[in-house]
Amino acid sequence: MKKLAALALFSMLILLSACGPMHPPKADSSLGRPPVIDPDYTDVIVPPNIAPLNFCILETGDDFWVQIRSTSGNSLDCRAGNRKVFFDLKKWRRLLRQSQGETLQVTLYGRVKAQWQKFEPFNIIVAQEPADDYIVYRLIHPAHLLWREMGIYQRRIADFCESTVLHNRLIGGQCINCHHFCGYDPSRFILHIRGSRVGGTLIVGEGKVTKVNTATSFNRAGAYPAWSPDGRQIAFSVNQLEMFFHASGEPRDVLDRGSDIVLYDVEKNLISAPAALSDPHWMETFPAWSPDGKTLYFCRCPSFETFVDQSGLHYERVRYDLMKIVYNAANGWGEAELVLAGSELGGSITEPAVSPDGRYLLFCLASDGHFPIYKPSSDIYLLDLQTGRYNKAAINSDFADTYPSWSSNGRWILFSSKRRDNVYSHVYLSYFVAGKVHKPFILPQKSPKFYDTFTQTFNRPTWACGPIRLSSQKLAKTAYDDRRKLDAQLDPQLKDKQRGKSEGAYHPAPN
Amino acid sequence: MNRAMHERNSAATTFLLCGGLAAALFVYFLLIVDPRLIYMAQRPVFFCQWDFFASHLGRPGGPIDWLSKFIGQFFTSAVFGALLLTCLITAFAFIVRKLYKLFDRRVHWNGEWLAAAPLAVLTGEYFFPLRYILALLLVLSIAVVNNHISRSWKEYQQALFFLVLVGFLYYLVQAIALLLPFIQLANRENLRTKRLPTLVAFFAAAAVTPFLISRMIPQDPQSLFSGLVPESITAKQRALWIACIALFIAPFAISKFRVERFPMSSLTLPCLGLLTAVAGWFYLFDAKVKTVLQVEFFAENRQWAPLLRLTDSRPDVNHRLVILHRYRALFFSGQLGERLFERPLEGPNGLYRSDRAALENPLDYCDLLIDLGHVNGALHKAYEAWAVEGETPRVLQRLAFLHLAKKEFAAAEKYLSRLEKTGKMRPWLKRYQEICQQRSLQKDAELLRLSLFAEKADFLMRPGFALAELKEIARTQPNRAALEYLLAYELLDGRLDAFMTDLPAYLQLNAELPRNFEEAVILYLNSGLPTTAEQREIAVRRSTLEAFADFIRILQRHGNDKRSAYKELGKYGRTFWFYFLYLDKGAEK
Questions:
Q1: What pLDDT, on the 0 to 100 scale, is given for residue A20?
Q2: pLDDT of B244-281, one tens digit each?
Q3: Which of A252, A455, A507 sits opposite B418 (nearest CB)?
Q4: Using the beta-carbon criterion (under 8 Å), do A247 and B220 form an inter-chain contact?
Q5: By CA distance, what is A251's nearest residue in B?
Q6: Mutate: best of A455, A468, A506, partner B, most B CBs <10 A
Q7: Which of A105-109, A389-393, B210-214 has the lowest mean pLDDT?
Q8: B341 with B579: CB under 8 angstroms?
Q9: Cβ–Cβ contacts within 10 Å for residue A325, how many?
Q10: What's the predicted TM-score (pTM) here?
Q11: Residues of chain A contacting residue B218, judged by C-beta atoms under 8 Å apart
């Protein structure tokens, strides 16, 4: 028995010695500069419900210690074995709960041989306003023409819990995308599936899933959706997309050979197309409702044929303007009005997103085209709808910054950026207040090395107020169930109006 | 005494038989099948990473998938692979024997080898997924274990345990788990417990389990049961798979009768098994498929001489990949312009294509585009290859290499770290990790060359415009491969004028023209089309001129009727003149 006790004591001693110091060390010297860490969480503003900001220390040293102190004296200490900092989830949550609206000072100590050195502290500000609880995105490898595995996932931002909404393994490997919520309600959303057997738009609402074929004799199936705030109609862009490739830079690019915006009445299962949104002289796309549901913002550019001449297609001239159209239940749709011309900014405006208070609008500006994710030049701009002033948001990088989206309280902006490697887009969050966008930070992951080896791209991140509770199995079953599939009806007024888009081949003009 | 001796003799015979058959299997797998070709065909993706393992735990059938991918890694070695496959088939025979003995002690005639025969043939089929074989093995092993441990239990205990077992097995191997109730039924009959509730319980287990499991772990609603006879495999593979299961279950049916009525030697069924295997092999094995895989293997390892030898010896194999890599082999051995018209199958498409069909073998086209110096084109194809074959080591290798060539070090670093987790290509990995860390391409001439090309390329690519793409590559990145391919493409396409326009750029790099190019020049100069002084000064060999004169003489002798001259002109069948003359008459050629 004594031997056993001695052995246990010995083992404990060994374990304790392996753990290193239990208290923050006393620094022998100061380095006079903040540490280099990855991901970069220095001087960022974070929501009080964010998961631990685990990070890697990109400094040389044998041992590291991280000390966090809040203004009101709350603290969290952590030893960084192997230069990776993992915060305890419970302690982190407690710290953030107690430090709402305060600044956290993060001090890093590094030991080189026997000397402890202190880095200059950096700050993390904990905002008062929480972000929405969930982020929904698609994960896919950097696909070109073909794809393999992909899925729509939801991630709780308070921890690292990620679950699958729908994986294409469940639906015969087809392509899934264009998920979109009605408001931020996780029980009302749509997603689109491409493919013969399971293809269609899944509309989830009131506890049931309906598969709708939004294609009619007038239009192709809906692509980019925008669900009206009252939940009665969904504006869809209907596009004729085609990929082509560049011999230098980012290889991928996309052409839209013809697009319109149509409206799907959820209750009547009816497709209509206001003339101003389906004008044959223009290509309309990327609908986005104002929060009051009275205005529909969208992007448009002249029809495809405008860009083709004898020397070929001048894709670089394809530039979209930001437009709006007023909707009134009594008078119907008004005329399309120009909000901001792409030419004024020297680029193409896409992916508009209106803030929940209706005051601001975020959009992407790229050199040309309508697929900013493939444009390293794509940046996010902020437009003040009240004053008409716009500016490049201070969240951009040298690579594609796209898919901006507002949290339900309008304080947190979510977007995807390829800034880490120019290939993979990752989710970034940024605090927004009084017209100012603050330094963005990457969605934290449990492993600080996660982004170094993760080979899936985060596509179209959007906020949701809670988790989607509907099972993947039910979504998959509905996708397969052709008996209950609804074919959208076409507004009788549109029946005679057939859309004929040019399908002929063309040669791209040289750069 | 006699009985004991008889048993000893029987055991010795069985031992010798098993040893002999296992040795024969090993030789078969090593020399005839070559497991490296199975790896080439299936390319199992495996990462030594917890996340990778965890991703397989989240779906029914995931665990067996993970195991098959792990085992598949050993197929890169012919000997290890053959050994593993032999072990699998022997293990199958052993477990089946155990089951037979467990269920009916009278079964003693080595029937397991009969059931193993179609499985051995299937295992050697290059595209048959290993996961099904492993799943079958696991199901049978669990049947043995279950019957051992639950034999003395009460009926309801057995039934409950069985339900849990089927559920767990379904999670491990998906629908193949549904074989377990059927195996169990066979045993039940032998144990004479033919009570209806038991039978119903077993069938219910089979019918309900997929639904129950899919409620807990989502899966494709269409594949709840279909995995038992996999849909993803070919009709021939399916037939053998069914034969394997049928032959395995058959002895249970036979055992209902008194086996004494079927006096059989212990060699009867193994011999029958051998015959079944041979018949199955003839039914399933396609030598052409093997040739294609061998060609891919040689191309992958840049072994151009054996590739040319193989394709020369198999003129009947006209697969797209064979044609593509044969042209590459000809180019690398300096013979493209000499032997371009030996097998001009598929015309210019055989040489290079950029349409949808190229996406069936994107990595092969990626390699060709690297040869041509077209970095973004190769990168595009490498990403398409990811979609086709997954994150295989060779795809990761190409992606890392091409991103390095584009000086996109962060992306290259990511792929190199991914490749590191596969445990493959270690020396290559080490070399390029170093380059990546130093952020300099100076140490690698090929990377340097490609990075220079990448900077100069300024054109657009559109799927289906192969010639335009080749022209642009040759214009922006003039190098021997790009120019030779462009000229070869134009000749194969019958575009003599375009060939003559692009020839000067080639002549700047190569003083001497290859034979087929000379033929094109002679034909053009004698066609009556306007020529320039430079064109007239292009040097051609006297022998080629004489051959052309003879060619024309033969044609004139037949009154310029190319149909009647066809047979006599056959001796010039490998010339551009012959190809050009009969270009629109592919059937006649």
A1: 47
A2: 888 777 766 655 555 555 556 666 777 777 888 888 88
A3: A455
A4: no
A5: B376
A6: A455
A7: B210-214
A8: yes
A9: 20
A10: 0.91
A11: 164, 167, 170, 471-473, 476
Q: Do B417 and A453 touch (CB under 8 A)?
A: yes
Best CA proximity match to A365, nearest among A387, A395, A392 = A392
* CA distance to A63, A458, B257, B378, per residue, from A427 (Å): 31, 6, 68, 28
**How many Å separate Cα B501 from the centre of its chain?**
41
Contact B391 A472 (CB under 8 A): no
Whether residues A480 and B417 touch (CB distance < 8 A) is answered with no
| Average of per-residue pLDDT across B114-120 | 85
Looking at the predicted structure, is the pLDDT value of residue B118 above 50?
yes
Which chain A residue has its CA at the smallest distance from B231's CA?
A172
Contacts with A147 from chain B: Cβ below 8 Å: 387
pLDDT at residue A67 in the model = 94
* 8 Å CB contact of A247 and B461: yes
Q: Average pLDDT of B318-326?
A: 95
Q: What is the pLDDT of residues B436-453, one digit of tens each?
A: 999 999 989 999 999 988
Yes or no, beta carbons of A170 and B459 under 8 Å apart: no
User: For residue A8, what pLDDT is reported?
Assistant: 61
How long, in residues, is chain B?
589
Comparing CA positions, the residue from B148, B105, B93, B118 lying closest to residue B255 is B105
**Burial degree of A38 (CB within 10 A; 0-12, 13-18, 19+):** middle
Picking from A164, A172, A422, the nearest residue to B220 by CB comes out as A172
CA torsion through residues B381, B386, B389, B393, sign: positive
B52-78: b or e for each residue (b if 16 or more CB lie within 10 Å)? beeeeeebbbbbbbbbbbebbbbbeeb
Instruction: Map residue A177 onto helix, strand or coil.
Output: strand
Q: Chains A, B: CB contacts under 8 A, how many?
A: 128
Distance CA B48, CA B420 (A): 9
The answer to whether the CB atoms of A148 and B390 lie below 8 A apart is yes
Q: Are the CB atoms for B85 and B93 separated by under 8 Å?
A: no
Query: Sorting pLDDT into bands at 50, 70 and 90, what band is A395?
Result: very high
CB contact under 8 A, A477 and B221: yes
Give B114→chain A minimum CA distance, Å. Answer: 36
Which residues in chain A are contacts of B436 at CB distance < 8 A?
none
For B385, residues 6+ apart whose C-beta sits below 8 A from its C-beta are B362, B363, B366, B392, B395, B398
Q: Do A453 and B384 touch (CB under 8 A)?
A: no
Give residue-wise pLDDT tens across range B137-147.
999 999 888 88
Please compute the mean of the pLDDT values over residues A406-429 and round it to a whole number.
97
Residue of A144, A171, A473 lying closest to B380 (CB–CB): A144
* CB contact (8 A) between residue B462 and residue A507: yes
User: How many angstroms separate the CA atoms of B568 and B383, rounded?
Assistant: 49
Residue B60 pLDDT greater than 60, yes or no: yes
Cis peptide before B270 (omega within 30 of 0): no
Residue B70 and residue B89 in contact, taking contact as beta carbons nearer than 8 Å: no
Say what the alpha-carbon torsion angle A223, A226, A228, A234 is, to the nearest 10 degrees.
0
d(CA B496, CA A450): 56
Tokens representing B176? Answer: 């193949």
Percent pLDDT > 70 in chain B is 90
Q: Which of A38, A56, A141, A144 to mutate to test the interface with B (most CBs of B within 10 A)?
A: A144
ipTM of the assembly? 0.91
Facing residue for A247 by CB, picked from B387, B458, B465: B458
Say if residue A295's pLDDT is above 90: yes
CA distance B101 to B109: 10
Mean pLDDT of chain A: 90
- How crowded is the C-beta side of A216, counted as CA atoms within 13 Å? 23
